[in-house]
Write a structure and sequence with these properties.
This is Alcohol dehydrogenase. By secondary structure, the chain is an alpha+beta fold. The protein has two domains: about 1-40, no CATH class; about 40-74, no CATH class. It is built from two helices and four strands. The chain has a two-stranded antiparallel sheet with strand order 1-2. β3 (about 40-45), α2 (about 50-60) and β4 form a beta-alpha-beta unit. It is elongated, with a radius of gyration of 17 Å.
Length: about 70
C-alpha cells in the first residue's frame, strides 16, 4: 500500500507499506476470486521454450497485465 505525504510520508513522496501473507488474507483473496470481484489481468502467455521472449516483453514496460510462462501443462 502506498501512503501519500498527508498520511505521514515526506513532502510529495510516497512510502510502500507491505505485510506478509496470512491465512485470513489468503482466504479473503480466495473468496474475492471465487466471487468474481478479483481477477488477474494477463497480457500474454508464453511456452517455456520462449521464456527469453517473455522476459523481453516484460522488460518493455508496455504491458496490459501479467506475462505468464507456462512451465508445464496440467
Amino acid at each position: 500500500m502506498y501512503l501519500p505525504s498527508f498520511l505521514g510520508e515526506g513532502p510529495g513522496g510516497y512510502s510502500l507499506v507491505s505485510t506478509g501473507p496470512s491465512k485470513m488474507r489468503m482466504e479473503k483473496v480466495q473468496r474475492m476470486v471465487a466471487d468474481g470481484k478479483l481477477k488477474a489481468v494477463v497480457d500474454s502467455t508464453w511456452e517455456m521454450g520462449d521464456v527469453m521472449k517473455a522476459y523481453g516483453k516484460s522488460m518493455t514496460k508496455h504491458l496490459q497485465g501479467k506475462v505468464v510462462v507456462k512451465v508445464q501443462d496440467i
